[in-house]
């Protein structure tokens, strides 16, 4: 019994350290929680609680790009506990993301290198996206975490956002335009037939 009770005390202390340090575990960023997989977000990562006031998260940048063009984007976190913020951005398709200041790229996704302090209730993470070489419609996925800076998993909150980016023709096969041309061409056949019938009728009248 004597050896058992101290063991419980050690285990309890270790658990407390893990819990209190969970917010610090990913202070240098985490990927895989952008919301691209709806079951994996900052709220589900277990390193921050969801008890704080939710911030507003937006993705800013052009909604259309030409193939191969580079666009400048930003994930913006507004409100919430509003002391420090972190983020994770991912995209589907073959677009290439490039990290901006205070950010890094890990496994094709972007995240912060260190939590960034809010200024006037807002924190911003800039990045760029290079569009693929062919037409496509991409989706940017972003998660933003607004923390109270107490280095614990209490009182923080996060939110997610998405942004559709059309590249070139959006990946369409031009079927709509082909259909329009087909209708116009088909419409010309009856007109030609009517003209021939009218000419034939005139010729018959002359012969009569």
What does the secondary structure layout of this molecule look like, with pairings?
Blueprint: H1 4-20, H2 22-25, E1 56-60, E2 64-65, E3 70-78, E4 84-91, E5 96-99, E6 103-106, E7 109-112, E8 116-117, E9 122-130, E10 136-147, E11 157-167, H3 175-207
Parallel strand pairs: 2-11
Antiparallel strand pairs: 1-3, 3-9, 4-7, 4-8, 4-10, 5-9, 6-7, 10-11
What is the CATH topology assignment of the domain at 27-167?
A: Immunoglobulin-like
N/C terminus separation: 127 Å
Largest sheet: 7 strands, mixed
Topology as a string of helices (H) and strands (E): HHEEEEEEEEEEEH
Radius of gyration: 30 Å
Structural category is: alpha+beta
The shape is elongated
Number of strands: 11
Descriptive key words:
208 residues, alpha+beta, Immunoglobulin-like, 7-stranded mixed β-sheet, 4-stranded antiparallel β-sheet, 11 strands, 26% helix, elongated, signal, Lipoprotein
Characterize the structure shown.
- The protein has 208 residues and is of the alpha+beta class.
- It has a domain at 27-167: Sandwich (Immunoglobulin-like), CATH 2.60.40.
- It contains 3 helices and 11 strands; from the N terminus they run ααβββββββββββα.
- It has helices at 4-20, 22-25, 175-207; strands spanning 56-60, 64-65, 70-78, 84-91, 96-99, 103-106, 109-112, 116-117, 122-130, 136-147, 157-167.
- Strands 2, 4, 6, 7, 8, 10 and 11 form a 7-stranded mixed beta sheet that branches. A 4-stranded antiparallel beta sheet has the order 1-3-9-5, with no helix packed on it.
- The model is unreliable at 1-25 and 173-196 (pLDDT under 50).
